[in-house]
Amino acid sequence: MRKEYLRLDKIEGALLKLSNIHDVGYGEVVEVEDERGNKELGRVIKIENESVTIQVFGSTVGMSTHNVKVCFKGKPFKIPLSKDILGRTFNGVGRPIDGGGEIYSKDIFNVNGRPINPVAREYPRDYIQTGISSIDCLMTLIRGQKLPIFSGSGLPHNELAAQIVRQAKIKSKEEEKTNFCIVFAAMGVKHDEAYFFRETFAKSHVLDRVVMYINYADDPIMERIISPRCALTAAEYLAFEENMHVLVIMTDITSYGEALREISSLREEVPSRRGYPGYLYSDLASLYERAGMLKSGEGSITLIPILTMPNDDITHPIPDLTGYITEGQIVLSRELNQQGIYPPINVLPSLSRLMKDGIGEGFTREDHPDMASQLFSSYSKVQEARSLAQIIGEDDLSDIDKSYLKFGRKFEEIFVTQGFNENRDMLDTLNLGWKLLKILPPEELDRLDSKLIEKYLKK
């Protein structure tokens, strides 16, 4: 039953406060209408005795405590979904903005998602080939994984995400053509950034299997709270109802965190680290944990959230907490970017915690685990040799240290560096790794089995 109220107690930014409210649920959808007939959606975010606080997903300009009608819908925030959403663009609250008309479906779906029983989850094992050597070899993306990109302002994280979307391949070519799609969620992005993604998807002929949920920088900041939930609900529908393999790209999680902090401040909550609410961890987990696979279904959700670290600080609360929840991270380096290296992936702090179960014989190639471990070990010694060279000079280094410096230069120039349109096959990436290892003395390859050295290094 719908309940309407004609008087507010207070308006604070995007929050409305009412009293003498009965039979209202937390998270319930609200429709707010001003005297000009303009309608905005909102939801209940706080209930205290008979007082209710409503978060409006839109502008409250022109509203006063006496000219607003508030209608409680008696249901959570839901959006209609069908397979017709493929190729469509929606705003942050799930309304079409591409001129294609409304989505009609038999069911509407709660954007808060359906909690997945951990026992019902399928352990991710099949890898996704991105065509980017440093990712495929050293931090392999596994289908059903959540692997964030830690970036900074001005770094090419959008280009990297678009390249992953354009080049991503699942194991079966037939499945790739019919059952692979992308859900893209943008929070607080500039119009030119959204245009870049849309044009990239169109040029790579994947736009017809991309669903976009876009909250622009000049859209209401409160929309950013619901945008990723709409996108993930669409991903769950496509994965678990339509049995599709879904790759979800979310940018920028930092904008989402800033919106959470603003709401927390308006609610006068006690702040935690750097002003962020104390529930930031659980809120981020409510997004990230919606990725995965089910034993009872064929579909999967693979999540790549992008976040820009303020001042490149990896200890900032958002990347710090994200690292606890997700299964690894891809870290971009400003130093490599300034050297003209693309993609500027900083290999040493980057990792994929699930790659060990999705590579090797039966998945990629039997030499992959040992060879990746050797590349990591050798590149870490490169940093030691570079530090020593700054102290005593490169000419006074030992022959082994000089070989590590040569290996480091070639590793960054040939292995890490590749063009925006360069798509490398997994086997080509592994062969390139062996080519680089030939630079080092055989006695330094202590992570490799002698059989692998005989088979791949001496041929």
Please describe what this structure looks like.
This protein has 459 residues and is α/β, with parallel strands linked by helices. It is built from 13 helices and 20 strands. It has helices at 133-138, 157-167, 173-179, 191-203, 223-240, 253-266, 280-288, 317-325, 334-338, 368-392, 399-416, 426-437, 450-457; strands spanning 3-5, 10-12, 15-18, 28-33, 39-48, 51-56, 69-76, 78-80, 89-91, 108-110, 127-128, 141-142, 149-151, 180-189, 210-216, 245-251, 292-293, 300-308, 328-331, 351-352. The strands form 4 sheets. Strands 9, 13, 14, 15, 16, 17, 18, 19 and 20 form a 9-stranded mixed sheet that branches. A hairpin with a 2-residue loop joins strand 2 and strand 3. The radius of gyration is 25 Å and the shape is elongated. The N and C termini lie far apart (76 Å). Residues 172-177 have low confidence and may be disordered.
Which tags fit this structure?
seven-stranded antiparallel sheet; nine-stranded mixed sheet; 459 residues; alpha/beta
Which SSEs are present, and which pair or pack?
Layout: E1 3-5, E2 10-12, E3 15-18, E4 28-33, E5 39-48, E6 51-56, E7 69-76, E8 78-80, E9 89-91, E10 108-110, E11 127-128, H1 133-138, E12 141-142, E13 149-151, H2 157-167, H3 173-179, E14 180-189, H4 191-203, E15 210-216, H5 223-240, E16 245-251, H6 253-266, H7 280-288, E17 292-293, E18 300-308, H8 317-325, E19 328-331, H9 334-338, E20 351-352, H10 368-392, H11 399-416, H12 426-437, H13 450-457
Parallel strand pairs: 9-15, 13-18, 13-19, 14-15, 14-16, 16-18
Antiparallel strand pairs: 1-7, 2-3, 3-6, 4-5, 4-7, 5-6, 8-10, 11-12, 17-18, 19-20
Helix pairs in contact: 2-4, 7-8, 10-11, 10-12, 11-12
